Amino acid sequence: MVDQLEYNSERSKLIIPEYGRHIQKMVEHAIAIEDDKERNEVAKAIIAVMGNLNPHLRDVPDFQHKLWDQLFIISDFKLDVESPFPKPSKEKLEESPSPLDYPQNHPKYRFYGNNINRMIDEALKWEDGEKKEALIYAIANHMKKCYLNWNKDTVDDKVIFDHLFELSEGKINLNKKEEDLSEASNLIHNKKNYKKTNSSNNRKRSKKRKRY
Fold it and tell me: Which of 9-18, 73-82, 145-154, 176-185: highest mean pLDDT?
């Protein structure tokens, strides 16, 4: 006698698809078992099979706790067995997560991003000297990259210095001395130069990976 074909449209919905149809059928079988002792033994056997399907996670903290939670979720919280861990709540699972707190500050120059302000604040904490000066020009260089990514193909370094002066509330002024402008040679020249430098750096990293 040939078994009748079973179509996916006639099957119950997979609650956790990663475990497949067979695990869900085993859980559905466990729910239907009337004897408490046998039902608990079957639940433990299902947990063992689920663990074998994820051997790479066995060293993860609370791995067993996670498996038991998933067992109850697959059963749609209908499985009545003794768990070594607190049973999860269906209401808690369906509860909407709290909204993430996004920074609500709206900077004037959005193309620089919020991290630029943090970098500037950090630079202002450093003692005056070569390291601080190098950091400031590194920030200016990064600002120029950001500017070129979202604006024109070229930009005068003085524009970047003016923006840096404004963002630092007048505490960093690279335009204050004429000789300071000579340091602008450390900044990228244009978008084409920026992309060429990035491409060259990526090739160097790729060669280093191949060596190892």
Answer: 73-82
